[in-house]
Amino acid sequence: MKVDIVDYGLGNLRSVTRGLERAGADVRVTEEADIVRGSEALVLPGVGAFKEGMRGSSELHEALVDAVNDGAPLLGICLGMQMLMTASEEGGHAEGLDLVGGEVVRFPCEVGKVPHMGWNTVDVVSSHPLMDGVDGEHFYFVHSFYAAVDDYTVGSTEYGEDYAVEFSAVVSNSDGNVVGTQFHPEKSGDAGLRVLENYVEFARDR
Amino acid sequence: MLEMLTRRIIPCLDVTLDESGCADVVKGEQFEELRYAGDPVELAQQYNRQGADELVFLDITASAEGRETMLDVVRRTADEVFIPLTVGGGISSVDDVKEVLRAGADKTAMNTAALQNPDLVEDAAENFGSQCVVVAIDAQRNYDIEEGEHIYTVDGRDCWFEAVVYGGREPTGVDAVEWAQDAAERGAGEILLTSMHGDGTKDGYDLPVTRAVSEAVDVPVIASGGAGGPEHMLEAFEDGKADAALAASIFHFDEYTVEEVKEYLDDNGVPVRI
Questions:
Q1: Whole-number Å distance between alpha carbons of A92 and A66
Q2: Is there a catalytic annotation at residue B138?
Q3: H/E element holding A1?
Q4: Looking at the domain that runs over A2-205, which CATH code has it been given?
Q5: Given 1.10.150.120, 3.40.50.720, 1.10.12.10, 3.20.20.70, which CATH number is that of B8-267?
Q6: A9 lies within 8 A of chain B by CB
Q7: Which listed residue (B59, B138, B182, B243) is catalytic?
Q8: pLDDT tens digits, B185-218
């Protein structure tokens, strides 16, 4: 199974590459729109700021949307998940890819320390093969912005002790081929590797 | 299951070069006399199996050769261990940050360079996001309260917490609480706070400074320096208000496994990932 990781020039791609390889994927890292457009399965990784992420070439973004509309599976990770959404309030207001209809907003200071950084549990609220066998497991999160729980939510997580926010830890579009995790599966130990395996298997079966 | 962000246990590996140029993990007492602890990649794998939540690698050579070796250690670890990795030691530019992130690290810890050039914190946060910018602060008590900004009473005596550099050999005159706040405002995503008072002693973390910094900033604080056992970690979370606890020698020399520490914390009501 060939999986293409979209490289928009930010941060650590090594862990997600190795994690997908371990899950049985033949991984290619690309920044070319043509490769993205013809891809069998895509991963949009993510560290960094939303605007920096979306600043990448609009050609690449169009290619992602085309590939998904042709039915290719796409997994967005952390910032990559947020980029799937309609818009984010990070850095004022920024348009996302609008593959999953929802807004990304900042945690209110009442929740406690921001970023929400560390290991937290994910409850699967709507079945998707991506989350097979990992309901209730701990995953590694690091983010200051979140998408609320809505129709697109596959998994949810709660953050805050006195004042808590429940947010989308995993999202999906209505067709199910676009999925995103707010946590980093490539940094979430065995549970995270299981999610990557699930993704590769899910992509292979489509 | 308890729905809560867990407290993190972070083994720290101080990496140096042996006579043949290979990477070793060592640990000294109060930053002196080093003891050999093992191969960094093997130790990293072992801690991962035991349930470590993250790993920190510190290049204590802070030399060009040390950097190259460290990058190799990070690459080899990142290929095998799928938990967050932080790298520190001698990181003094945005290019240095980029290099370690590309090698497979998730965060970089900056100490002296950030204190001397706080703009570096902003530059790194703007380029790569706050989540990968850890500002490491080494602090010690100073009883000359004329000089400090934030004064605390510890064991009946007034003091302030002074940031020190070069492994504690050089005081800076900078108030550590003030610097932690400034660093967080500039975009640091986390503070790694090492108390020189406790480092290497195994008498426990310096709880007053840990609490002072943790209450002063809105970003997570990692307590470091002085862990001798799980009870010290419990204190760091309960009294020190830390978000994570870092330790080196208790894990290296097999006094405790990460698992044993976490079981103790769990028994005492601290949320941990088991």
A1: 27
A2: yes
A3: none
A4: 3.40.50.880
A5: 3.20.20.70
A6: no
A7: B138
A8: 999 999 999 998 777 678 899 999 999 999 999 9
